[in-house]
Design goal:
This protein has 335 residues and is an alpha/beta fold. The chain has helices spanning 36-40, 47-69, 88-104, 114-125, 165-175, 182-189, 214-230, 236-262, 277-290, 306-318, and strands at residues 2-7, 12-21, 24-34, 78-84, 109-113, 133-138, 143-150, 153-159, 266-270, 293-295. It folds into 2 domains: 2-125 and 301-318, ATPase, nucleotide binding domain (Nucleotidyltransferase, domain 5, 2-Layer Sandwich); 133-299, Nucleotidyltransferase, domain 5 (2-Layer Sandwich), CATH 3.30.420.40. The chain is built from 10 helices and 10 strands. α4 crosses α10 and α5 packs antiparallel against α8. The longest helix is centred in the C-terminal third of the chain and has 27 residues, at 236-262. The two termini are 27 Å apart.
Amino acid sequence: MYILGMESSCDETSAAVVEYRDGVFEIKSNIVASQIETHRLYGGVVPEIASRAHIEAVSSITTEALEVAGITLGELDCVAVTTHPGLIGALLVGVNFAKSLAFANNIPLVSVNHVHGHVAAAYLTDKTLKPKFLSLVVSGGHTSIYVCEDHRTLREIGTTRDDAAGEAFDKIGRVIGMPYPGGAALDKLAYEGDSKAIKLPSPALMHTLDFSFSGIKTAALNYLNSASQKGEQIVCADVAASYTKAIVDAIVKQTSAALEQTGLDTLVLAGGVAANSHLRAALEKMCQGRGVKFIVPPRSLCGDNGAMIAVAGCFEYLGGNFADTSLNASASDEL
């Protein structure tokens, strides 16, 4: 079967065609229209501008996705679209386009949770992967640990109580002058600094698997402001290295504890921050030490993309969870 996956939850418009045959997924096309250059002017995503950019791109990238895949609308078995969570205006563009496309062409439509989509990218990475496994989703809006009970069920056992790791990286990256997206630039700069130069609090909360990133952001900002007021030299590479290590160490600590508690032998890392080289390396080392299988998608599938939505949508289709014309979008984790 062929699934068209559509993603527009933030600042990337994406359409992809994925084929599902004999229990294996294959990407036939995965087109992504990025808005990074547009939002770089403002140092972050501007929701209204993102929504308008989705409107401009959604039709052309869908046509391109079908052409690259070499199929027609009539050959699609399902249209899958991200409905939640995300920026409400951006989501509505994708949802309304997908609804119109599906019902005008009599194609089944399914709703996909954006977080489930990120986890589903692992099935494109390791074709032998089957639930039950532990999944860590780290992105600009999420930092959560889940037990993947089956292909459609994620049970949250740890999460951030305030900001997400991706937002924390981007914020401090922007403050020290890194170009948007700050997290990606911070990742590279951290290799040039001393990770022990600045003492920062751990985002890992005690006696739980949860996180809190507001404290480390405040501590880093206080350090930068204090140094600036005193006329002290700020070594940006040291800030990047110390900040990155504190966040990565906390994520590894909580994930290791989650593996210990659940007894699971497979860890899936997903989400935009899964592209962070320091986090990937640290989690891989931890898993090797515990004898746990570590699966992380290639960087092209870590960010928002339609292929991951198509895979998650396929599981919704197989489960008979179809949407009708009343399908709507939601900015929260609940539709």
